[in-house]
Amino acid sequence: MKKYLFKKSFWQSMLSVVVIGIFTLLAAGSVLMLDYFAGVNENEKITIDRGDGVIVEEYWEGDYDCYSTEGKRDDYNRWHGPIVISVNTEQRWGDFTEKVNMVNGIKHGKSVTTYYRTEEEKITCYNMGVVVDCEKKAAYISAENPSAFQVLNNKHPWLLVMLNALGYEDAYVEAYMDTLVTVLGTYEFESIDFDSCYDDAISVLEETPYDSIIGANSLLSFMNGLELIKNSELRMAVIDHYRSDGNSTYNIVKTTYPGYLISLSYGDVDDQDFEEFSQDLDSCMASYGILDLEDPFFVDSVDVRMFRAILSIMDTEESTSADMLKSAARVYVNNDIQSIWHEVNSILKPSLLNSTPAEVSEVALYFILMQFIQGDIIKKSVREAYLVNKGVISVPTVTTVFAGGNSATSVTLGGYVIEDGGADVTSRGITWATYHNPTTDDNAEGSGTGTGEFTVTLTGLTEGDTYYARTYASNSAGTAYGNCISFTAQSTIGINENEIIGQDLSVYPNPASASTTFSFQVESSESMALTIVDLKGQVVYHHDLGTLPHGKHQIELDLSGIPGGIYNCQLTNNGTIKGTRKLVIAR
Length: 587
Known about the structure:
Layout: H1 2-29, E1 44-51, E2 54-61, E3 65-71, E4 81-88, E5 96-103, E6 106-107, E7 109-115, E8 121-127, E9 130-132, H2 148-155, H3 157-165, H4 170-185, H5 194-205, H6 211-228, H7 233-243, H8 249-256, H9 258-265, H10 271-286, H11 298-314, H12 322-333, H13 337-348, H14 357-372, H15 377-389, E10 397-404, E11 411-419, E12 427-433, E13 443-446, E14 452-458, E15 466-475, E16 478-481, E17 485-488, E18 506-508, E19 515-522, E20 526-533, E21 539-548, E22 551-558, E23 565-573, E24 576-585
Antiparallel strand pairs: 1-2, 2-3, 3-4, 4-5, 5-6, 5-7, 7-8, 8-9, 10-11, 11-14, 12-13, 12-15, 15-16, 15-17, 18-19, 19-22, 20-21, 20-23, 23-24
Helix pairs in contact: 1-11, 1-12, 1-14, 2-3, 2-15, 4-5, 7-8, 7-11, 8-9, 10-11, 10-14, 11-14, 13-14
């Protein structure tokens, strides 16, 4: 019993430390800076309102090193649309600027990274966060026995760019990861024990010169983890609660995020337990006063209030110690979902019969941390290489996009099985429902087998209703799901695509969220214009391109000011339509 009480006390303390750290960072982050450098202290996060919905988020390390992201955010504070990511350091050997389109916090489309020192450009293309070949729009072919560094370089190049900016060249990162794999190779363990052995290997390397890159990766993992927790269904439900007219968090979870309740049930938290916790959560947050929905930092304020309320429900002593924050980041960056889930079950399950709101809050925090600790991309790369080289089959990699054809009763969605996980994909398709993250237990429309792109048309929809959908694919290891998208069934007028005359007009990405690129060939010097027309025939965008010389041209267009929907894009020469393409803007 004493051992159990000690373990539970330790787990509760660590939960509190991590949440207090996140809460402290969020609280410090929501400030409006009139002067870029006013009051910047070591290890500080600053959020700046540029106006017109443009936000700048900065992480400062000391007085000179700054990691910055600039652009617009969606309703849940996830980056959305054309985004500029930059790193400026005192040494400046790896400083860069990356311009990329993002959809709900996920990179989608072409990314262009420019290095300050050499003016070199690196182009990477993403399909909903997964790196694909820019020309073929297909996944890169993985090596038969990939190294951990190859996985990192091919699938997560953005992290390598960040490490470069911190002074770690590719060769050094590769040497570190090879050494990490070598240390792992001295242990004999099954796949299920990977996480604990990985932690032991990290502990060994912390006593070597590699301790600096371990610390740098912990910082980047922490920053990435903060972005990942924005996908917490409880967090999104709380934000929806503030924006709704008197709808409680419990009711929103039950109707829009029912999968969250199913997840809680694995921790023996039943519906009634969660309802009591939600009532306390709403009441506690309401006691902090009214929030202005038009405030650019509205969601930041909700985040701060939510964590503060959860801590209050847990009746945990608050602390703002910087050392606690750093320790929390290191501890949870070096742990994994499965290992923590096993620990939570062994600690909390005996006490969660007829759970109190305080006990439910512990489980709710665990699910937030599940997403936070996925921020360690080096660990993710090492694990993938280890599993592939051991011949362990994993679930497929899939993504979801709009394909158009939205009407009052139907919609066409696109799925993409990018990787098979090492085994044949025996089924694939689209799942859909009127709530978030549907599964194959809900509505499922199959579309063959194997990898590659496919489309599915969903019918029998109700006009005006909002639906959620995502791709699924199954192999012998299980079923994987892609990103979840939402859409509203609505009447539309069909668009005919005219034959291209002289100009090879293409649009990518399409569907697009907030930016897209028009590419076309001009056979001779001509005066050209680009016009975008909605389904009612109204011009929503027109741009005279002037007289263009012979050759290929590209125009990158910011779509943030155009509502979501289906549009007709026309390339014209003195009023004569030279080419037409359909464009779907998906919000």
